[in-house]
Write a structure and sequence with these properties.
two-stranded parallel ribbon
Length: 271
């Protein structure tokens, strides 16, 4: 099995590609220059925004894991260009040069309605207005309409392996005045690999699947775990299900997170 990974130098991609190599899989990474990659990952030159550069990258790939995306930037044009046009270019290349490949798209639980009355479910109508989740829904629609075998995994808040992601949201939640009791669904990097490995078996083919651990955790608790503080509050919690995703479909398919909660990650020293 030969796997092509986009976004292999990013927060998720670096950690996922290393784990896939440890599973004995043949991994290649689509890169624009010559970055440091985990041992065993082969660099293939190309850019998802340059359709002509993708032929060699996709040829011979049995699976394409599309992680590359633009998220935290005020440049909405760049978000839409990268997340939608980049996905379209990669799909077109795969349909032409690797039509038997399985295409796995990394999406986000941010697509669910802020004011939802329940944890976000895969069959919910999604119509986000912010550029990042809206662009990911557009990318999902392209994948679903393609001629390829596909899987869409909607990741919840990804953390772990000393990536600094929990610490990085401290300033954001303060500026946005998030309620400290607000809970987010979480997923450890180790279980991104668990979910991807399961998708490689065909168990998630032609499905959208939320990837979450067993314990949504409050912003207040998350900050305390990494030694940061938020102003406490006992006021009513608005939009209590925002960023809380339902993991029951994944569980029914056989997905079991190996890191059930952030507290397990803390105990194991992999926070």
């Amino acid at each position: 099995m030969t796997i092509l990974i986009t976004g292999a130098t990013g927060l998720v991609g670096q950690r996922l590609s290393k784990r896939l190599v440890h599973m004995g899989l043949d991994c290649r990474a689509l890169v624009r220059n010559s970055p440091a990659l985990p041992p065993g990952v082969v660099a293939v030159a190309g850019d998802i925004l340059d359709p002509g550069s993708l032929r060699d990258a996709v040829t011979g790939a049995s699976t394409i894991i599309h992680l590359a995306a633009v998220f935290r930037t005020a440049d909405e044009k760049l978000i839409w260009k990268t997340n939608v046009e980049g996905t379209r270019n990669l799909l077109n290349a795969a349909e032409t040069y690797a039509p038997e490949a399985r295409f796995i798209l990394a999406s986000t639980s941010n697509v669910y309605d802020t004011a939802t009355s329940h944890p976000g479910r895969e069959d919910d109508l999604v119509a986000p207005t912010q550029a990042y989740p809206a662009s990911k829904v557009a990318a999902e629609n392209l994948v679903r309409a393609s001629q390829l075998n596909w899987v869409i995994q909607r990741f919840s808040f990804v953390y772990g392996d000393n990536d600094g992601h929990i610490e990085a949201i401290h300033e954001h939640v303060q500026k946005a005045k998030w309620h400290p009791a607000h809970k987010m669904s979480m997923i450890h990097h180790r279980d991104i690999a668990t979910a991807i490995a399961m998708a490689l078996t065909g168990a998630m083919d032609r499905r959208i699947v939320n990837i979450v651990d067993d314990a949504p955790t409050s912003i207040y608790e998350l900050m305390e775990l990494v030694g940061l503080k938020l102003e406490p509050s006992s006021s009513a919690l608005p939009d209590p299900w925002h960023l809380h995703a339902d993991g029951s479909l994944a569980r029914s398919l056989g997905f079991v997170p190996t890191v059930a909660s952030v507290y397990q990650a803390q105990r194991e020293g992999i926070l």
